[in-house]
Amino acid sequence: MLDTTRFQTMRVAALFFVLPFMALTWEIAAAADVSVKVTAIVEHPALDAARDGVKDELAAQGYKVGGNLEWEYQSAQGDVGTAGQIARKFVGDKPDVIVAIATPSAQAAVSAARGQIPVVFSAVTDPVAAKLVSNAKKPGGNVTGVSDLSPIGKHLDLIKEITPNAKTVGVPFNPGEGNAVVLVDLLKQIAPGKGLTIVTASAPSSNDVLAAARSLVGKVDVIYVPTDNTIVSALEAVIKVGIDAKIPVYAGDTDSVPRGVMAALGFDYYDVGRQTGKIVARILKGEKAGDISVEGVDITQLHVNPGAAEKMGVTIPPAVIARAKKIVQ
User: Which helix (H) or strand (E) holds 88?
Assistant: First the structure.
């Protein structure tokens, strides 16, 4: 008969032997999974759609949340300082890839990563001007992604087609958001050739958007909202001013149309996310981020909201409605 004390001692010894082995086995299994951390400067329909597109594309490529993919998403809620904190936290977690949506979050992620972790940006207007990469075709380093540079010329053409008598275009924007500054500069360069003058209104935070929009009343014939995350996050304030003052409001992204903008020619940001997800998958499968060229988005869609237009004192021409990809009633 085995001595009870001796038997217990043997059980404890065996347990101390087995536990480290079990822990080692778990670490190996965990290491086989991939980790993707995702951050955006703010939550609004376009950026949320891009995030969802990334997630769905990874699932299509075989990387599924709850299975072999660890996925974490955090929004900076429009605060650049918070974007930096999120980026540093993500770098400390040492994921396989960091996905940064919109210019401020991308700048924070690239700065924090210091080339140690691949960063894939999405919905960034001008990655070269934002100093994310020095060469879009050959990024080098550990950064690449998808640019959503708006087709500004086409946007101004749409304004002239629907509101042919317009001469001045009001543009609320955040001067602290690099992508917005790039777009305003492009607007000022292209507008004169189309017989238009640009009038800007500064809104450094979402709390300033209503005042910025109101400051344009009496000065402009139409308002154009660029893909400026600060303005888009408080879009309803601009729409209210447009309705109250009977000023037509256009936008650079189609997700703004269901919210009350009368027309927009832009990208489907869910598709932008899917395009971004394809790049992430290539990196997870072994390619280097710096060897992948930055991609642009070529396909645009026209979305219109005749009801919103009527509230702003405008009737959208039948020819424009006829070619719209989506009509919001």
Answer: helix 80-93
Classify residue 61 by burial, with Cβ atoms within 10 Å: 0-12, 13-18, 19+.
middle
Q: Which residues belong to CATH 3.40.50.2300 in the chain?
A: 33-148+269-291, 152-266+301-327
Distance CA 16, CA 226 (A): 62
Residue 292, CB-side half-sphere exposure with 13 Å CA sphere: 25
Please choose, from the candidates 271, 261, 211, the residue with its C-alpha nearest in 3D space to the C-alpha of residue 232.
261
Enter the pTM of the model. Answer: 0.79
CATH class for the domain made up of 33-148+269-291: alpha beta
Cα separation, 231 vs 216, whole angstroms: 14
Q: Which residues have a Cβ under 8 Å from the Cβ of 266 and sit 6 or more positions away?
A: 150, 227, 251, 252, 253, 254, 300, 301, 303
3-state secondary structure of 291: helix
Q: Give the number of other CB atoms < 10 A from CB of residue 30.
A: 10
Query: H-type helices in 163-301, by residue range?
Result: 178-190, 209-215, 229-233, 235-245, 269-284
pLDDT of residue 315: 97
CATH T-level fold of 152-266+301-327? Rossmann fold (3.40.50)
pLDDT tens column, 152-162: 999 999 999 99
Token output for 176: 């602290």
